[in-house]
Amino acid sequence: MTVDTRPSGRAADALRPVRLTRRYTKHAEGSVLIEFGDTKVICTASIEEKVPPFLRGKGQGWLTAEYGMLPRSTHSRMDREAAKGKQSGRTQEIQRLIGRSLRAAFDLNAFGERTLHLDCDVIQADGGTRTAAITGAMVAAYDAFAVLVERQLISAIPLKHFVAAISVGVYRGVPVLDLDYLEDSGCDTDMNVVMTDAGHFIEVQGTAEGEAFDRVTMNQMLDLAQAGIENLNRMQKEALGLAQ
Amino acid sequence: MTVDTRPSGRAADALRPVRLTRRYTKHAEGSVLIEFGDTKVICTASIEEKVPPFLRGKGQGWLTAEYGMLPRSTHSRMDREAAKGKQSGRTQEIQRLIGRSLRAAFDLNAFGERTLHLDCDVIQADGGTRTAAITGAMVAAYDAFAVLVERQLISAIPLKHFVAAISVGVYRGVPVLDLDYLEDSGCDTDMNVVMTDAGHFIEVQGTAEGEAFDRVTMNQMLDLAQAGIENLNRMQKEALGLAQ
Amino acid sequence: MTVDTRPSGRAADALRPVRLTRRYTKHAEGSVLIEFGDTKVICTASIEEKVPPFLRGKGQGWLTAEYGMLPRSTHSRMDREAAKGKQSGRTQEIQRLIGRSLRAAFDLNAFGERTLHLDCDVIQADGGTRTAAITGAMVAAYDAFAVLVERQLISAIPLKHFVAAISVGVYRGVPVLDLDYLEDSGCDTDMNVVMTDAGHFIEVQGTAEGEAFDRVTMNQMLDLAQAGIENLNRMQKEALGLAQ
Amino acid sequence: MTVDTRPSGRAADALRPVRLTRRYTKHAEGSVLIEFGDTKVICTASIEEKVPPFLRGKGQGWLTAEYGMLPRSTHSRMDREAAKGKQSGRTQEIQRLIGRSLRAAFDLNAFGERTLHLDCDVIQADGGTRTAAITGAMVAAYDAFAVLVERQLISAIPLKHFVAAISVGVYRGVPVLDLDYLEDSGCDTDMNVVMTDAGHFIEVQGTAEGEAFDRVTMNQMLDLAQAGIENLNRMQKEALGLAQ
Amino acid sequence: MTVDTRPSGRAADALRPVRLTRRYTKHAEGSVLIEFGDTKVICTASIEEKVPPFLRGKGQGWLTAEYGMLPRSTHSRMDREAAKGKQSGRTQEIQRLIGRSLRAAFDLNAFGERTLHLDCDVIQADGGTRTAAITGAMVAAYDAFAVLVERQLISAIPLKHFVAAISVGVYRGVPVLDLDYLEDSGCDTDMNVVMTDAGHFIEVQGTAEGEAFDRVTMNQMLDLAQAGIENLNRMQKEALGLAQ
Amino acid sequence: MTVDTRPSGRAADALRPVRLTRRYTKHAEGSVLIEFGDTKVICTASIEEKVPPFLRGKGQGWLTAEYGMLPRSTHSRMDREAAKGKQSGRTQEIQRLIGRSLRAAFDLNAFGERTLHLDCDVIQADGGTRTAAITGAMVAAYDAFAVLVERQLISAIPLKHFVAAISVGVYRGVPVLDLDYLEDSGCDTDMNVVMTDAGHFIEVQGTAEGEAFDRVTMNQMLDLAQAGIENLNRMQKEALGLAQ
After folding, report:
1. Distance (Å) from the C-alpha of residue C85 to the closest C-alpha of chain D?
2. Nearest residue of C to residue D190 by CA position?
3. Between E89, E90, E202, which is nearest F208 by CB?
4. Are E102 and E202 in contact, with CB atoms under 8 Å apart?
């Protein structure tokens, strides 16, 4: 299955080159630079020895995520959210998505009254920043839990599933995987899919930006996403040196 | 297909009683009270004779939506967002969804440099407020455009499709339609679906709150949603007195 | 005493039709829709089992109020305060007035360390929203305290006085009662009066918008207000099914 | 008429010593330090050569007021509003009152498309800051308009009336004039009255803080206020060197 | 050493007339009006019987400062920071400088778990407001600590050094002391220096506004500052009635 | 001159290894990663084809800077400023310093009505982030102006001086150059110096954090800074491939 007109020249079912660099910065318990082609996101995982007020005393942990873009990570400079004094609706939507996705990856009852803070900061954007963020944050979170194991604060990594995310869309009538910026801005439909390594869905968020899409197209997109996420799960495990 | 354990006692594929009351308040060009069972949302559509700065001079219209809940529309009182000085991430996510959904319903190039403001305010909440809001806002927007036709400012309602929305979920292992609050808080998966009256998708937003869900379940949920939305489209047209 | 030129056609001392609908929404301990003609305000009373920090441990209760208008409750759409991120000076002034007025109605030492939150949300505005809000909130608060009695948490409703409010003004030189929007925007003087059912004043707030007013006019306005409030007190008690 | 128990030892109808110091600071077109006993407020009037957007092109002027308290103008230090990032409801209420009162003093159609900004900053508080602010701002505004006359930008001061304000209250059952802090915090009723030098009312704001008050008391308070304001008007004119 | 062209006519090494008025307002433990020529700043020192959270239980005190300008303390009216809802970067920079400078003057371990709040409010600005604020706050803080001694809460004033501040600059090529507004707006370099009465530096903040400055000029400016601060320290002690 | 006890083991006058990586991200006109040892800052320079309102129509350009830290660039995670809704005083102080420093490097009258936005984002912090930011932003700004030359929008880079910055301090009694985090948190005095390649001062900001420092120490620190900045200027030019 190929698309001659795909701006990136990729096959419809091809991911961009993916790179996962662990220990990218030195302070965080987990720190990963993830690259989906020209999209580059720093994902750090920080452990805090307390939980938010609504969970205190319940013996349970918490995991939360924040997302940001450097002002000139994008083609034209965006205003800095800290200077404007508020996060955009898009930013909040994305960080809520990252948080929900990663909470599905780990057992919140198995790491004590601690909070794992995930910070996903885009240093260069070329489409798919939220899916790169989820995929990279999975590895950073794993590394942070490994630190807790190493410090003998918990006995095992509280893993439920490996979780990864990818975008799919309909570009010039053809369903394609992992849209870059050019493809994303020209596509009719954009769907972000988050799945586990068992092939189950955590999140599906599809939006018809131009024409509404039918059930057949939906199924084709889900097929592409599932295959793409299997690949990403494999790369996450390789990066972590885990036997498959 | 029935579910004995569904708290509402409804069949798995049954909507709650739906009521659409047009001209609910007197000032707005379109004003609809929509009820999905005990969920009650006031949807008003207001016409403004200008567009936001990014569209000025392009001869195109705009449509945008805001969403709010009265502090005691819910079981326990929530803080008032105006008093806190900011809208929650959830509020912003919902109003962005309503806006995108309704922009798919109308032709933005066919009503001049005007903005249609949709305000969806929940006065009583019992699950499904965002889907009720989209379904009611469709009717309010239609009424507002009819005012423009009546005033001879445009020649026809710039309709592309009727759009409606419904939630589906998995409750005790069974896919069910139109979750009320009790069902929603106990379900494993929650999906909001927005479709046109041609049976195409505008938005699909599914979240696994407990267990991740598989492809079979996804398909069952989409089937339920499609049937439910057909019903809602019919009710919208009846409310507007349109021949089918 | 009649005024030929009064836009509403009402006699100078005539209230608009008043309707009080109790149990208007289902979650709040007290929930009242109050209508002064076309002005419609939802007043809910919510009980919280704690007091603000400055009262903790003093064995005393608290009562506070918030006020809002739906964006299209008015003739032209107003910006949503939650979206702007702040309440206007007018909103704050009104909610402070409602709070002070209702704190005069009840004995704060007679319902334990609890807070009664009054939320007054205008769904349709046609003048007099603050006076309708006070008059309706009185009934909602009464109902909420009745719930506390029913739950045997307090032995009696901590009532000091029934409290109601009405506006008076000078329209085309003639003092008139209960101004609607048209009258209000054309009047010279606007005064809001809050009184007890013993005929005493809780609040008097008069503003000369055009010409300053003299002492004779002031006395005429206070006479009108007193008679109007006696009527409102009677309707409040009827709505609550109280023997007079 | 005397009150033995009045903490200040003043007669019931006695003002505190009043001092008006013109040209208190050097930059503002009008700058007055007003003292009501230990209450000290700096009132400046600044002319800006434009009007707010809603008045542009209408050939009309505008007058607006802001109010603030130095953090340690009060007995205990208050938080600085600029540091908290918002003005309290009380601050907004007071500055709206000052603005309305002074707009009644001048003819907004008689000084061109200019804005007069009144800034009333309390440097020491001992009760009655808002009434001192209004009374002092009247003189500062007069001086600022005199500058416009001197610069030959307008032909005459656009004066409608002299306006002054005073508080009255019920202290230990007796109506008294011009409450200081000790009296204010112990009184049952507090009323602020703004009047013209023709003896007409601009604003009346009375609040029963303890017991509701009756019509007789109201009349006694209004009598006290009227006499007090006559005195203040005389002092304003003396300070300005105006023949009476 | 004289400068013919200095707008103020002062010698290059001459301070403006300095006046320190203690007990300027009545509520604060320390309250000083400091005047550097036409620059007038009210400095109050308020004692709070607790420390910020990060210091609780450490047996140590804290000292912090806030700075503000009345809107018309300046030549043209500035927006009120409380109304804008945020302090400017300049304001924050200045209040951080005042706080650091005064924390160097006192032993934070010698006055218990208390906070000294310094509020420096400019009522008239003519250049050098931050240096006047530091110099005046020193005296206000001393007075506030004297109150603690008098109340027998501490045994001695926790003084480390007397601290004062002055500006120096290069005006038309000549280094000069204590710039007023006219000199400041026309100068090439502006440096604020904070020193102890032992002749040591607490803060040096120099900025080349036009031409960068060389080492020789830097030394000349430091010489001027040192001599000026010796004078200010003497005046501070005189004002406090301390034997030298 | 060596210091045995310097935690980094460096000589007192030794910089950390400095690396300048140009074209670090792809969208910005200038994009530099600068490393001072473990301190890593991304500096981007973005050209906008307009100036702020206060400069419009004056034929002059503008240059402004913003600064941020990724939440986990530091040893413990800091709150994200965008999520808190405001920039700290420290952040504002630093970005104002960067802006002033770089405005001294270029001729604002020589690049038309354009704004150069400098964004300095710390991805890893180990002391000296503001000095690294200034030094890196100089190179990014140079690259951005080179783009304007290349596009034939200006005829030459509007360079006045090369500007660089370094910190100096007193660690265990010895003046040292370029403090890392460990040294910075333990030092008595911290001074940031910004100089031109002509050896002149742009900014000097010294703070005694423990003991006040004397004139001799000040001179020693300035000597160290001057030598360090000469080195940095050389590296900047090398990175840009400029003949010296």
Report:
1. 11
2. C203
3. E202
4. no
pLDDT of residue A4: 61
How far is residue E217's CA from residue A92's CA, in Å, rounded to a whole number?
52
* D80–E123 CB contact, under 8 Å: no
Look up residue A65 and give its two tokens. Answer: 């995520």
Both tokens assigned to A146: 């490994």
Name every chain A residue with its beta carbon within 8 A of the beta carbon of F85. Answer: 85-86
For chain B, the chains sharing at least 3 beta-carbon pairs closer than 8 angstroms are: A, C
- Write the CB contacts of F174 (distance below 8 Å, at least 6 apart in sequence): F3, F6, F12
Give pLDDT tens digits for E177-230. 999 999 998 888 999 999 999 999 999 999 998 889 999 999 999 999 999 999
All residues at 6 or more sequence positions from A235 whose CB lies less than 8 Å from its CB, including other chains = A18, A20
Contacts of F205 in chain E (CB under 8 A): 204-206
Please name every residue paired with A75 in a beta bridge, in sequence order, or none if there are none. Answer: none
Instruction: State how far residue E93 is from chain F, nearest Cα, in angstroms.
Output: 6
Q: Which two structure tokens, joined as six digits, stand for C138?
A: 């009185």
Token output for E29: 């433990």
pLDDT digits (tens, 9 = 90+) for C150-184: 999 999 999 999 999 999 999 989 999 999 999 99
> Residue A215, exposed/middle/buried by CB under 10 A (0-12, 13-18, 19+)?
middle
Per-domain residue ranges of chain A: 18-240
**ipTM here:** 0.94
Amino acid code (one letter) for A134? I
Nearest CA in chain C to B76: C27
Within 8 A of E91 by CB-CB distance, chain F residues are none
Cβ-based contacts of F74 with chain A (< 8 Å): 27
Q: Closest Cα of chain A to B84: distance in Å?
A: 14
Task: Answer for the pair B40, B121: CB distance below 8 angstroms, yes or no.
Answer: no
Tell me, what DSSP letter sits at residue E163?
E
3-state class of F176 per DSSP? strand
Produce one character per residue of F208-235: b if its CB has 16 or more CB atoms within 10 Å, e if not. bbebbbeeebbebbbebbbebbebbbeb
φ, ψ dihedrals at D103, nearest 5°: -65, -25
How far, in Å, CA of C112 to CA of F216, rounded?
Answer: 68
CB A28 within 8 A of CB A121: no
CATH fold of the domain at D18-240: Ribosomal Protein S5; domain 2 (3.30.230)
How wide is the angle at C-alpha E219 spanned by C-alphas E214 and E224, nearest 5°? 130
Q: Which residues contact F119 (CB under 8 A, 6 or more apart)?
A: A70, A71, A72, A77, A80, F42, F43, F44, F46, F65, F66, F67, F68
From E27, E40, E71, residue closest to D74, measured CB to CB: E27
Q: Within chain E, how many helices (H) and strands (E) appear?
A: 5, 9
Task: State yes or no: F130 annotated in a binding site.
Answer: yes
The encoded tokens of residue C211 equal 């010409």
The 8-class DSSP code of residue C183 comes to: H
Q: Which two tokens stand for residue E83?
A: 């109304």
Q: CB pairs below 8 Å between B and C: how many?
A: 101
Q: Does the annotation place B72 within a ligand binding site?
A: no
Q: Are D117 and E79 in contact (CB under 8 A)?
A: no
Residue A187: pLDDT band with limits 50, 70, 90: confident
Q: Which residues of A touch F80 (CB under 8 A)?
A: 66, 68, 82, 119
CB B191 within 8 A of CB B165: no
Cα of E69 vs its chain's centroid, Å: 14
DSSP notation for D132-163 = HHHHHHHHHHHHHHHHHHHTTSSSS--BS--E
Determine the pLDDT at residue D186.
84
Tokens at F157, concatenated: 């880079």
Is F196 in contact with E212 (Cβ distance < 8 A)? Answer: yes
d(CA B64, CA B92): 12
Token duo for residue A141: 């979170």
Judged against a pLDDT cut of 50, whether residue F236 lies above it is answered with: yes
- The CA distance from F118 to the nearest CA of chain A, in Å, is 9
